[in-house]
């Protein structure tokens, strides 16, 4: 009986490799180097909710129904985020990165894998309070156009505003958080002037390349869904996108330590995972 | 039967139950242990540090893509799910809460089942919800060994009762009983490994 469950698992793994290959060939989205455990869990959940019997059936549906592919795309991307998520990270940026950005007449920031944009607006607030928002060009990218549409609007549900207010204060916020939004029924609309220097665009970290030279990259809780090879590829991409002495901020459990570029960055804040690209002497 | 990993889920009252269980294991206990304890998302890694001081084993917070090693106890970090990859490394995830929880016991148990199959031991301890029940059932269905803390002993019996009802575990034991059983299983698999090694050497 139990050798059966082993065999079923083996077959499921083969089917997963095939569906990912199919999705890549048909739609161009490459999940082949994502964390296998993550992909498998999300696909098996979709299998249950769609009342299908096997990943092969799921594959048939995905390849023949572009609408169904959109659902799988959402399943495979994680869009859990919040305003000033991990407030201590923003405090570290305020204390250790902002003073350097202030020395530039003009600088660029890239939020990679920005999801619905909460963290983009959070950092825009920081830039505003530090008086350097007008000198910034901010790019916010994600591979999922649905989440970008939400991000562009800058309208979010009101139910988490209490938590966000706490986060804002803990992140070193200098004013009242309510200065930055207007409540309207069950939504809040963020101060539209925060959008002035913001560009939202589709970009896929797995398949796309460098598009700008930037001073700061913020990419939090994205790398954890990738396998080692893909993590290395993306760190290389970040390295190539940063100016000499540019900064990289990762999620609290993500580290450059075991990547191929570990020696190309210096650690600015180990707890908050803030790194600085070493200056390459020519 | 030899086992490659032990997964443990605990919620309300779990800290003391885990402390009792982990400190009862000898320092040569080799089967790796992976733990989800429900905890506030903003708490620090106090639990891993504290247990590490008290135990002869290496107790640590699970790191992203960390290789699972014998003699180690891994605890899910606050606000992250832990998933076991089939190459026996740990992945972290910030995906949606499951059973109102992140970390979720079910997610650890289900992914560990894929990685270890029948060579897995799953344990559900005290708690006030039913996280872990469906995960324990998947361990049972794959031929793994399921243990639930005796509801009479558990500080909160909801989680053990739910797990017993859903998965009909092989054993329902007190913490002391669980520790004794794990030590027995560990010693047995050590012997088995020795025999296997001897056979290999002869060949």
Report a brief summary of the structure.
The complex is a heterodimer of chains A (282) and B (203). With 282 residues, chain A is of the alpha/beta class. Helices cover 43% and strands 19% of the residues of chain A.
Q: How would you describe this structure in keywords?
A:
heterodimer; A: 282 residues; alpha/beta; 7-stranded mixed β-sheet; 9 helices; 10 strands; 43% helix; B: alpha/beta; Rossmann fold; 7-stranded parallel β-sheet; two-stranded antiparallel sheet; 6 helices; 9 strands; 38% helix
What features would you describe in this structure?
- The complex is a heterodimer of chains A (282) and B (203).
- With 282 residues, chain A is α/β, with parallel strands linked by helices.
- Chain A has helices spanning 2-27, 36-50, 55-64, 66-76, 87-101, 118-129, 145-153, 161-170, 228-241, and strands at 107-112, 136-142, 155-157, 181-184, 187-190, 198-202, 214-219, 242-250, 265-269, 274-277.
- A seven-stranded mixed β-sheet of chain A has the order 6-2-1-7-8-10-9. A three-stranded antiparallel β-sheet of chain A has the order 3-5-4.
- In chain A, strand 7, helix 9 (228-241) and strand 8 (242-250) form a beta-alpha-beta unit.
- In chain A, helix 1 (2-27) packs parallel to helix 3 (55-64) and helix 3 (55-64) crosses helix 4.
- The radius of gyration of chain A is 20 Å and the shape is globular.
- Chain A starts with a helix and ends in a 5-residue tail after the last strand.
- The relative contact order of chain A is 0.13.
- The model of chain A has no long low-confidence stretch (mean pLDDT 95).
- With 203 residues, chain B is of the alpha/beta class.
- Chain B has a single domain (5-202), classed as Rossmann fold.
- In chain B, 38% of the residues lie in helices and 20% in strands.
- Chain B contains six helices and nine strands; from the N terminus they run E-H-E-H-E-E-E-E-H-E-H-E-H-E-H.
- In chain B, the strands form two sheets. Chain B has a seven-stranded parallel β-sheet, with helices on both faces. Chain B has a two-stranded antiparallel sheet with strand order 5-6.
- The radius of gyration of chain B is 16 Å and the shape is globular.
- The two termini of chain B are 22 Å apart.
- The relative contact order of chain B is 0.18.
- The mean pLDDT of chain B is 94.
- Classes of the chains: A alpha/beta (282), B alpha/beta (203).
